[in-house]
Design goal:
Layout (H helix, E strand, L loop, with lengths): L5 H25 L3 H4 L4 E7 L15 H6 L10 E4 L14 E10 L2 E11 L28 E5 L2 E2 L1 H9 L4 H29 L1 H23 L6 E9 L10 E9 L7 E4 L21 H7 L10 H6 L10 E4 L19 H19 L11 E8 L5 E8 L26 H7 L2 E8 L15 E7 L3 E6 L9 E2 L9 E4 L2 E2 L3 E7 L4 E5 L14 H9 L5 H8 L3 E2 L2 E2 L1 H11 L8 E2 L23
Parallel strand pairs: 9-10
Antiparallel strand pairs: 1-4, 2-3, 2-5, 3-4, 5-6, 7-8, 8-9, 11-12, 11-15, 13-14, 14-20, 15-19, 16-23, 17-18, 17-20, 21-22
Length: about 600
């Protein structure tokens, strides 16, 4: 066995993180579209020649589809590969607006690693602006599908392919600029990594790669998985609509089996997941052994760390893959769709799975996991600006994270790391509307000993006629609470006085009308009647909780924001239930797993 120099490992690990950050910074500074440049909805990743993800700051797509179609031995310096085809991406691309570029790294004439970037772009064609038709029944309605191709050959761009892609986009200039930024940034990253190999030699660097991945495997096994008792646990959650059928429950189920003596201590079985939907909420996750989903879900395990500080130190790279075995149901489910099932709103499934894994781990560990949190939603408007030019404003607004066993949830977090809302000053200078409010949605966080985080409350007044669009769930079913915590408030959009559904393509908005967006609040953790009344009063003073909610949800009576201790004691005595509350509080709208009643207008029959 080759001896590993720990100092060398630190140098290599730090260089990888630095190169990845440098690539992302270059893309952010040179891209053209607001989605990439301002909202930062893109990721870079570094993989070795064995296709293992080496960096752990963020997730990334996969290299597998590139080496499947282009032999490594035939690659050349300056080559750039491209793809966005969901079904030919081996599970690494979720919907067509996610465009992926991959650049090989060379040392002594041989490929030794890969630098990759993929991000959500403004438009790649399809039936609606933004390439996310909420009522799509087929992938052919969603935009241009590009299987893995060589976009640059030895440093020379393929102008024919670029012309085809930009011709199919409603935003050709921003698409061309974004692709140029991503290709150039990845080529720069490949040069930086090549310098690392030149400095220390291939054998030393690859030995460090092995050590970095092995460290993650052993750290997760020793510090995190050891905290999960052996046994089998089940939890499921639901997407509430698919854009085609009437609202119904589309189940995503995880059966978690824990066996610490096994080579893969965690078995995640998705049997029981609903059939694939007619609409675009499917996710093609069963490719390449589910390797993308393993790395996507593994960050949830970090919540088992001893402290929040330790949790923040833990990277998720290829080292988590051997610890997890995934078992998928037969073809034709939400996670195993059959081409050409549409996928553009697959966030309803892939992000819900994060909460399902957290829920099943909460059951296994007695609640040592956060309550449920927001998922991604896209809202926006499109039309013509004051000069008659077409525009598209689409924004990924975050929501509240769930209360934790040690602290409140965070307000207005974004599941995509480092992504953000679009700055008001930029939006108003570029598009024909005025942002009249951007703040926290009061009372949106689920009540609890530790309160759920709050969502956004954003109001946009249109200055010209336009069309409203939305790709969002949690508009019927709320984020659930844990261990006596209450559910948060669901997503809500109104245009004028009319409440919108979660999936909308082209609802007309007149000049002067206001679009009001309230994003989801996270679930609470622990009984709200156990929360310190002083913290409730502080939330009221900060505008996070209303005086009425302080009384109704927390049993705290306030007099000019001062606590009436005697009245609070009496009220809490009347509000405290005779029996302990359910471990999970889903709020109205969910069925019970035992088959109990449901209280929201949701059809529980499985889709046909």
């Amino acid at each position: 066995m080759t001896r590993v120099d720990p100092i060398m490992v630190e140098i290599v690990e730090g260089t990888l993180a630095s190169v990845e950050k440098e690539v992302e910074t270059a893309i952010a500074r040179t891209a053209r579209s607001p989605m990439i440049r301002d909202a930062h909805d893109f990721r870079a990743g570094i993989h070795d020649v064995r296709l293992r993800k080496l960096t752990g700051r963020s997730y990334s797509a996969l290299v597998q589809p590139i080496v499947r179609d282009f032999p490594v031995a035939e690659m050349n310096p300056g080559d750039v590969f491209f793809h966005n085809d969901v079904y030919l991406s081996e599970g690494g691309i979720g919907h067509l607006p996610d465009l992926c570029v991959t650049v090989p790294v060379f040392h002594d004439g041989e490929v030794v690693a890969f630098v990759q970037a993929f991000g959500h772009h403004d438009d790649i064609g399809g039936s609606v602006p933004g390439s996310m038709p909420s009522h799509a029944r087929s992938a052919f309605e969603e935009g241009l599908m590009v299987p893995p191709i060589k976009l640059w050959d030895r440093g020379v761009p393929n102008r024919a392919a670029l012309t085809i892609m930009t011709r199919n986009s409603r935003m050709p200039d921003s698409l061309a600029g974004d692709l140029d930024a991503e290709c150039s940034a990845c080529l720069m990253g490949a040069r930086r990594l090549g310098e690392l190999f030149d400095r220390y030699g291939r054998q030393a660097i690859e030995t460090c790669f092995d050590a970095i991945i092995s460290k993650t495997t052993e750290t997760f096994r020793r510090e995190l998985l050891a905290k999960i008792p052996e046994g089998t646990y089940v939890w499921e959650d639901y997407a509430e609509h698919d854009g085609v059928d009437e609202p119904r429950l589309h189940a995503q189920r995880i059966t978690l089996t824990v066996d610490h003596a096994a080579a893969a201590p965690l078995i995640i079985d998705f049997t029981g997941t609903s059939p694939q939907a007619k609409g675009p909420i499917n996710h093609a996750g069963d490719y390449a052994g589910g390797v993308f989903l393993k790395k996507w879900l593994a960050p949830v395990l970090r919540n088992l760390a001893d402290t929040p500080e330790r949790m923040a130190e833990l990277d998720v790279n290829e080292g988590v893959v051997p610890l997890i075995e995934m078992r998928f149901p037969e073809k034709g489910t939400l996670l195993t769709p059959i081409f050409p099932a549409p996928t553009n709103a697959r966030t309803f499934v892939i992000l819900r799975l994060l909460g399902v894994l957290a829920g099943v781990l909460a059951k296994a560990t007695g609640g040592r996991m956060p309550a449920d949190q927001e998922t991604i939603r896209y809202t926006g408007v499109y039309g013509e600006d004051h000069d008659g030019r077409p525009y598209l404003m689409r924004e990924v607004l975050g929501g509240g994270s769930g209360g934790r066993w040690y602290a409140d949830g965070e307000d207005t977090i974004h599941v995509v790391p480092d992504s953000r809302n679009i700055p008001v000053e930029f939006a108003e200078s570029r598009w024909p509307f005025r942002v009249e409010r951007l703040g926290l949605a009061r009372d949106s966080g689920g009540p609890g000993l530790y309160r759920g985080g709050l969502g956004y409350d954003k109001h946009i007044r249109m200055l010209r006629d336009a069309s409203f669009m939305s790709i969002a769930d949690r508009s019927i079913l709320a984020c659930w609470g844990v261990n006596g915590g209450r559910a948060g408030r669901p997503f809500l959009v109104t245009v004028g006085d009319q409440e919108m559904e979660g999936l909308v393509d082209d609802f007309p908005v007149k000049a002067g009308e206001i679009v009001r967006v309230r994003t989801t609040g996270g679930g609470g953790w622990g009984s709200p009647l156990d929360r310190d009344p002083a913290l409730v009063a502080a939330d009221v003073r900060d505008g996070k909780v209303s005086p009425q909610a302080a009384r109704d949800d927390y049993g705290v009576v306030l007099d000019s924001l001062d606590i009436d201790a005697e009245a609070t004691t009496r009220l809490r005595a009347t509000l405290r239930p005779a029996h302990p509350p359910a471990f999970f509080d889903r709020g109205p709208g969910y069925p019970l797993l035992s088959g109990g009643p449901t209280h929201a207008p949701v059809d529980t029959t499985p889709p046909t």
